[in-house]
Write a structure and sequence with these properties.
The chain is an alpha+beta fold. Helices cover 46% and strands 21% of the residues. The strands form 4 sheets. The chain has a 5-stranded antiparallel β-sheet with strand order 4-3-2-1-5, with no helix packed on it. The protein is elongated.
């Protein structure tokens, strides 16, 4: 299903002539609809912006596309379908989104099945009825998955791909965790082995000839060692 073209909401500033320059830098371009001692209100095509008068440095006025729209609209009769459709088309080309919407809404009111007006307003035709895009997708059996409309088969395929990707990522993470655990276990085993070898080196007795058996080396940090008479050492012979 094709989406309706987005033709109502582009607002090129160059089409407007009134310009409000601000004291703190920058400016607002559009159609000034109100200017008092306290506020300046500017219609920028998609809405009205109010600016406190004490922030306004100067105002430059001139004719703009909104003036042309108002002049054209005044000339149209309330039931002039073709005239309002033409004005809607012109407004879209000029980037006047709000005005284009208003013109096409008048056309839709007068001619509910007009294809141009309904399409411009974002509607789609389903079985001879103009409905919202969401209703149109649902009517055709589409489902919304991850923010996109697609057929149930496409949604199922997308879900399967997501599940497979998640399973792969989980398996890779488990493999990384297992590898890290193996490295940690090997490091702990190596540390324990080194401590055992150090303890064995300091505690294994060595025969010192006529002096008997004794340690090979004194452990570091033993502090003051008690004196052992030679006679006692000889007893170990």
């Amino acid at each position: 299903m094709k989406k309706a073209p987005l033709i109502l909401f582009l607002v090129p500033a160059s089409l407007f002539a009134d310009q409000v320059f601000l004291k703190d830098a920058g400016s607002i371009t559009g159609k000034i609809v109100e200017q008092t001692d306290t506020v300046v209100r500017v219609d920028v095509g998609g809405g009205i912006i109010g600016v406190p008068a004490d922030r306004v440095e100067r105002v430059e006025k001139g004719r703009c596309a909104l003036d042309d729209y108002n002049d054209r609209a005044k000339k149209l009769g309330p039931t002039d379908v073709e005239g309002w459709k033409k004005l809607g088309r012109w407004s879209s080309q000029q980037g006047l989104g709000t005005q284009a919407h208003d013109a096409y809404t008048k056309v839709q009111t007068l001619a509910p099945n007009d294809a141009e007006a309904n399409t411009a307003l974002g509607l789609v035709e389903v079985d001879g009825r103009w409905v919202s895009q969401e209703e149109g997708f649902r009517a055709k059996g589409y489902v919304k998955y991850d923010g996109e409309w697609m057929s149930p088969a496409e949604a199922q395929l997308a879900e399967t791909r997501f599940a497979n990707d998640k399973a792969r990522r989980d398996a890779e993470q488990r493999a990384r965790d297992a590898e890290a655990a193996t490295r940690d276990a090997e490091a702990r085993a190596k540390e324990a082995e080194e401590k055992a070898q150090e303890a064995e080196r300091y505690n294994a007795p060595t025969y010192w000839g006529g002096w008997g058996y004794g340690v090979t080396a004194w452990p570091q940090g033993t502090g003051n060692l008690a004196y052992t008479p030679a006679s006692q050492l000889r007893r170990g012979r």
